[in-house]
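testing teh design pipeline on a random one, pls ignore if ur not involved
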């Protein structure tokens, strides 16, 4: 049975969005549907390591501790490196599965960033304060703002 891609995608989206409890449930579903091969074992260990790395973000040695999810050139570079390791015949099946999971993770992050609409910077609204100059006893907000020289 091939790797359940929809479950993996869902799992990665959950842990990237820091929904760890739901993510662990998805990881258990993935594990139950995997065949017992070395490639799958490496793939699973990478997925679990991603969970640990994101959960303990203060660990200076984890991959995600200094990871910028918005730096697309670096993410694409990482994805290409992981794919090179996946294709490298000198690596064992376990290692190729491990790097394959990381390449998929980088791909999911790229897709997640593309689906987030970029918000335009908000324009500042100029607020005009109306004051009543005839009534000296009435306090207005303008009395409390420093006057600006135009």
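output:
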């Amino acid at each position: 049975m091939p790797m359940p891609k929809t479950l993996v995608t869902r799992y990665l989206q959950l842990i990237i969005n820091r929904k760890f409890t739901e993510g662990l449930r998805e990881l258990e579903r993935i594990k139950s549907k995997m065949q017992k091969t070395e490639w799958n074992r490496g793939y699973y260990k990478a997925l679990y390591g991603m969970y640990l790395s994101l959960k303990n973000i203060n660990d200076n040695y984890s991959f995600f501790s200094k990871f910028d999810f918005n730096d697309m050139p670096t993410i694409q570079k990482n994805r290409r490196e992981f794919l090179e390791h996946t294709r490298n015949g000198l690596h064992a099946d376990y290692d190729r599965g491990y790097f394959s999971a990381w390449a998929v993770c980088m791909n999911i992050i790229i897709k997640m960033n593309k689906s987030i609409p970029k918000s335009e910077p908000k324009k500042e609204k100029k607020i005009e304060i109306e004051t009543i100059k005839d009534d000296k006893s009435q306090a207005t907000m303008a009395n409390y703002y420093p006057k600006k020289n135009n």
